[in-house]
Design goal:
This protein is mainly alpha-helical. A two-stranded antiparallel ribbon has the order 1-2. A hairpin with a 2-residue loop joins strand 1 and strand 2. Helix 2 runs antiparallel to helix 3. The longest helix is centred in the middle third of the chain and has 25 residues. The radius of gyration is 18 Å and the shape is extended.
Amino acid sequence: MLPGGLLTGYIGISVEKVLFVLLASGALGRREHVRSAAITSVTFVGWLSGVSLAVRASRAGTASPDARDYVGEVPWRLVATALPGVVLGVCNAPAVDGRLP
């Protein structure tokens, strides 16, 4: 995953965009429709993030022995802080999208 992180950090292109281009251009042997390529690449990154979360949560050590809100290496207090914004964004996105030109 290091090359994906380097791409994101240096040039602002992440793994799902690279996968999208590969699928839509036919570089992997079969050219996919743009919509299918977009859905596949975003779904792939979602699953990859879930696997990463599971691995980090199962690791024994934490960054600091005083960190009480950690399970493995996951700072659950920060995760819980971000969840309301994610839920509100998911709930309100269709209404906002309908009003945009």
